[in-house]
Amino acid sequence: MRMIEERVGKVLVLTIDYPERRNALALGLREQLADILDRAEGDKETRAIVLTGANGVFCSGGDISGMDVTSGTSGRERLRRVHRVIRYLVAGKTPVVAAVEGWCVGAGMSLACACDTIVASEDARFMAGFAKVGLMADLGLPFTLPARVGVGRAKQILFYNEQMTAQRAERIGLVDVLAPPGKALEVAMEKAAFLSEQAPFPIAMTKEFMAKGLDEALETEKNYQTMLFLSADHQEGKAAFMGKRNPVFEGG
Q: What is the pLDDT of residue 102?
């Protein structure tokens, strides 16, 4: 489990590498990513970032096996720590391009939507998936997804958990650029190279301006999701996921 860093000129390429869980965003990866982004925020030589996943998968979601929240305090702390990542991606000074191949699910969709540009291969697949384990969307997705596709479409994506093709995602504004299969990173690098040559301060100020309301949204998310972490429906959803069966939710 690791975040791979590679520098190409003024572009920092970050690759999620957790093959055992199809690049699920485990706590260790979240901490590594937050630390890397913190360093990049203070580095004048980093003018653009590309975020991608190894082995043909962007991110399969959160690591369900590591979701062991037992109190309100631990739930809030879990979200506080990962919200560092979202704040850097959405409101940080450096433009970020997501290169999506394969699955982009749950927390993976949250990461992608926190980026400024999403490049997806034509055979990529998107899904929210949070409701399957008795949770609401988190990692800023209730803020970033409606900004991309509108409130009405965001509700359909979050409520119904349907798989979405890259073509449909591009039509509704979830994806910005389509690339041939296997070429998402190549196209994302072209976008990042362009951004790295632009005046940095206008980009930074535009990102900050458009992130107004993010802090309030993340605080609300922290409160709501912590309650759901402790719910009976989440325990059932988690058990059903690990047992590879359909959950039976009773509203508790």
A: 97
Q: Which amino acid type is present at position 84? A: R
Residue showing tokens 């959405």: 90
Query: Quick one: CA torsion of 227, 229, 235, 239, rounded to 10 degrees?
Result: 160
Give residue 244's pLDDT: 86
Mean pLDDT of the chain: 94
3-state secondary structure of 99: strand
- Tell me the C-alpha to C-alpha distance, in Å, between residue 170 and each of 101, 139, 142, 149: 14, 22, 19, 10
68, two tokens: 């062991």
Count Cα atoms within 13 angstroms, Cβ side, for 27.
Answer: 13
Q: What is the mean pLDDT of residues 51-73?
A: 84
Strand, helix or coil at 119?
strand
Could you give the CA distance from residue 248 to residue 252 in angstroms, rounded to a whole number? 11
Q: Contact, 223 vs 73, CB < 8 A?
A: no
Distant-in-sequence, close-in-space partners of 84: CB < 8 Å, separation ≥ 6: 34, 37, 38
Q: Is 26 helix (H, G, I), strand (E, B) or coil?
A: coil
The CA-based angle 184-188-189, given to 5 degrees, is 120
Q: How far apart are CA 99 and CA 59, in angstroms?
A: 11
Q: Scanning the structure block, which residue is given the tokens 């988190």?
A: 138
pLDDT at 65: 66
* Alpha carbons 15 and 131: distance in angstroms, whole number: 27
